[in-house]
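Fold this complex.
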Amino acid sequence: MRYINFEGEPTISPDDFFMNEALNEAKQALAEDEIPIGAIVVCKGKIIGRGHNLTERLNDVSAHAEMQALTAAANYMGGKYLQDCTLYVTLEPCVMCAGASYWFQVARIVFGAYDQRMGFGRLNQKITHPKTEITGGIRENECAELVRNFFKSKRKS
Amino acid sequence: MRYINFEGEPTISPDDFFMNEALNEAKQALAEDEIPIGAIVVCKGKIIGRGHNLTERLNDVSAHAEMQALTAAANYMGGKYLQDCTLYVTLEPCVMCAGASYWFQVARIVFGAYDQRMGFGRLNQKITHPKTEITGGIRENECAELVRNFFKSKRKS
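Structure:
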């Protein structure tokens, strides 16, 4: 699906649009010298949760962008589940975050860059909720480059 | 390994002893009408983190006992990793919690009851840290019975 734009501007798909918002969260992490990963949760076209990696600030290796965005969204909804919601995240979720998405019964996960080492997609069994649809590779290069450049700059310093 | 007790009292293994502490946390959850699952983190014989299931109170389906105990322990340590620590939990951890234990680099996971439906052990690939040792079935019956009775009473009411 693509939105029609009558102003002659480039059209953008909803997934591209929302991944851009997740990228903004990742850039916020970068500004705080965190690994630049960002996530948002969208329900019926509305952003109801945001988060970025906070492992350094919280000194908590489990404070991933997805965990922040999912709990923020669930809090906003005042309910337990996120059955009508899409999680957008700039990097393929790890096993912990994919496992969390199971409990929240997220309808859809859209991620940017693939993470072959730590991403949940390396598992040969499904660990997300049976109803969760997965889309990977949205704005993949921008998402990957943010993380790549971050680690490159860390190695130099 | 069993501690020697010179008083003629029944001896108790360290794993039994600490699982009893996790069971006390589970009973605390029960008193709060939460699914009775408890966890503690032990470092060199000292309990440095405690937690029990808080999914109802926090209205957060990811607020598992293990997540509470792990973050409490990491907070206490003031460091990121729990490489010398053992996580004791009354129920076999789910994929999310096992995934979290990876990031914390927990040395050992000891659990009570097996959870064939949601436990991470159902996966045919290792998702815990390569250095993490796993022991299951410690005080299995007591741990299982707590959860079983909880759901039985819920179905009646």
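The mean pLDDT of chain A is 94.
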